[in-house]
Write a structure and sequence with these properties.
150 residues; binds FE2/S2 (inorganic) cluster
Amino acid sequence: MSSEKRAELFSGYQGEEGDLIPILQRVQEKQGYISEEAVRRISRFLKISENQIYGVASFYSQFRFTEPGRNSIKVCLGTACHVRGGQILIDAVERELDISPGETTACGRFDLQRVACLGCCALAPVVQINDDIYSRMTVIRLKEILQNYE
Ligand code: FES
């Protein structure tokens, strides 16, 4: 991270503890995740321990700690999707790609997230890959669709 980027990260903040969440949001927005390096720098800037930062940030599902993949898979586990097999879909993706929710494949091709509701419950179960929404998903279709993403 360049010194310019670092300054950008903290500009407008005084280094108070209450700045933690807004700074984490800024890092997440700019880098797509909260890197170890960012946590170290925030720790120094706010004078709080790295453990405290991880402790607070892990309460919020919006923050991720691994670099996103080239393609992001979101499997909906909201009520409508859950009762129509959302969990089976996420289990299938975990097995197929050998990752858990919140992780990225070693090759960087995919990351996997569990989400609460994608806002199209009538089409459950729903999976989103990048900006594409797939409705009434089945395990077989999902495995085929994954092949389309490099
Ligand atoms: S519960 Fe899955 S889209 Fe609403």
